[in-house]
Specification:
Elements lengths: L7 E3 L6 E5 L4 H12 L2 E7 L5 H12 L3 E4 L5 E6 L11 E2 L4 H12 L4 E5 L10 H9 L3 E4 L7 E4 L8 E3 L5 H12 L4 E6 L6 H8 L4 E6 L2 E7 L9 E2 L4 H13 L4 E8 L6 H8 L3 E10 L2 E9 L7 E2 L11 H10 L3 E4 L12 H11 L4 E4 L2 E5 L21 H12 L5 E3 L12 H7 L6
Parallel strand pairs: 2-15, 3-14, 6-7, 10-11, 18-19
Antiparallel strand pairs: 1-22, 3-5, 4-5, 7-9, 8-9, 11-13, 12-13, 15-17, 16-17, 19-21, 20-21
Helix pairs in contact: 1-2, 1-3, 1-6, 2-3, 3-4, 3-5, 4-5, 7-9, 7-11, 9-10, 9-11
The structure holds shikimate-3-phosphate (S3P).
């Protein structure tokens, strides 16, 4: 990231039209690299997300012995070290802004005979790591960490690690995946019990690499059993577009009058599509076209046409299936007719920023009536009237959070006089090409 913040004003040029692709799925990209690193031999990944978060995972795996490069078609090629084969890194592993890199790699290191130091940027260094330290300690790893369980910290892996049965106290795919990755080099069967369903990319992909992963429903909970001392076969993969990135141009098209946009090749894994379901309930004209399977993940082209939206009460149990999409839902709610009420969102306070606070503050600056509660927001929408921001409105604080930056970019397209965000750099975390894509779709000027 360049050293100084880069502010930018976004305002609508007119209806959005045409088609575009969003970059590869962030969650799937991290997992594709990590599991390839655990296979012996060469795996090829097409469509990998080339963003700062994913490059943090590449660099860490490289420093622990995997060879990672690109072929002449731009596909990524990983020569893995095999389960149990990670090498001692010589320097600290810099996770940048990436919670997924930090938590998944802590799991991987926990059952290897190495010690690794994890560091991160000021946003990541505020985020809770106790949620992975606790189960990984039960598996035998130890941690040098200051009180508060934040980065920087040191993981001392344990060989052989101990298989555990662990019920997730927070609905977190990162915690689930950290345990599953530690389980790969642990003798016996490790079980993770998931009371609330979270994204299941790790389960799907591990099966593709030939690992033994059993999934059972017991009393309404999901029990995931990973057989350890696994041998992973190298595997070629294609990464679908990220639904969490597609959400931004799609919501923009719903909000800008006259728009009709097609976002192609988007993952529609049901553990990720909560936002699209809620938007449809709000009256969005959002349709899946050309549904297909890509390497074990469902994919579609998604069309959005400008729609009049109605406020809604969002059921809290859908939250894990749209956890990254609340910031952009709040922008849609600000343009809807009537109130949108969200609850059960305590986890949003532990993302790249406190997303409830950051969104409430920014929307209030744009004149949106918003009530912030400890676990959610209540937003009274404008009924389609443009948001009020103008050149006198202070810049919206993006707080090193890509999704806050992109949400207020979309708010700018739905505003009367444009919205200025204080920094576009965080978009590089997951969607570096977002502003140029908006230019291509006719949303903003070049
Ligand atoms: C992710 C899980 C979610 C999500 C993050 C990516 C993953 O985090 O917010 O962007 O790839 O497993 P939590 O596990 O903290 O909910």
């Amino acid at each position: 990231m360049s050293e100084k913040p880069i502010p930018r004003t976004f305002e609508s040029l007119g209806p959005m039209s045409g088609y575009a692709r969003v970059p590869g799925d962030k969650s799937i990209s991290h997992r594709a690299l990590i599991l390839s690193a655990m296979a012996v031999g060469e795996s090829r990944i097409e469509g990998l997300l080339e963003s700062e978060d994913v490059i943090a995972t590449v660099a860490a795996l490289w420093s622990m012995g995997s060879q990672i490069g690109q072929d002449s078609n731009g596909n990524w090629v990983v020569n893995g070290v095999g389960v149990g084969g990670l090498l001692q890194p010589e320097t600290a592993l810099d996770m940048g802004n990436s919670g997924t890199s930090a938590r998944l790699l802590m799991g991987l290191v926990a059952s290897h005979a190495i010690t690794a130091t994890f560091i991160g940027d000021p946003s990541l260094s505020k985020r809770p790591m106790g949620r992975v330290i606790e189960p990984l300690s039960k598996m035998g790893a130890s941690f040098s960490v200051t009180p508060g369980d934040r980065l920087p910290l040191m993981v001392h892996g344990r060989v052989p690690a101990v298989p555990i049965e662990y019920r997730l106290p927070v609905a977190s795919a990162q915690v689930k995946s950290a345990i599953m990755l530690a389980a790969l080099n642990t003798p016996g069967i490790t079980r993770v019990i998931e009371p609330e369903r979270t994204r299941d990319h790790s389960e799907r992909m591990l099966a593709g690499f030939g690992a033994e992963v059993g999934i059972e429903e017991v009393d309404g909970e999901r029990v995931i059993a990973v057989t350890g001392e696994a041998e992973l076969r190298p595997h070629n993969m294609s990464v679908p577009g990220d639904p969490s990135s597609a959400a931004f141009p799609l919501v923009a098209a719903l909000l800008v009058p006259g728009s009709n946009v097609l976002i192609q090749h988007v993952g529609i894994n049901p553990t990720r599509t909560g936002l699209f379901e809620i938007l449809r309930e709000m009256g969005a004209d959002l349709t899946y076209e050309n549904e297909r399977d890509v390497g074990g993940e469902p994919v579609a082209d998604i069309r959005a046409r400008h729609s009049a939206l109605t406020g809604i009460e969002v059921p809290p149990d859908i939250a894990p299936r749209m956890i990254d999409e609340f910031p952009i839902l709040f922008v849609a709610a600000a343009l809807a007719d009537g109130q949108t009420v969200t609850r059960g969102l305590d986890e949003l306070r532990h993302k790249e920023s406190d997303r409830l606070a950051a969104m409430a503050r920014g929307l209030a600056q744009l004149g949106v009536p918003v009530e912030e509660r400890p676990d959610g927001l209540t937003i009274t929408g404008s009924g389609g009237e443009k948001l009020k921001g103008d050149y006198a409105t202070p810049h919206i604080a993006t707080e090193l959070d890509h999704r806050i930056a992109m949400s207020f970019t979309v708010a700018g397209l739905a505003s009367a006089h444009g919205v200025t965000i204080d920094d576009i750099r965080p978009m590089a975390t997951s969607f570096p090409s977002f502003p140029p894509m908006l230019e291509d779709l006719g949303a903003i000027g070049r």
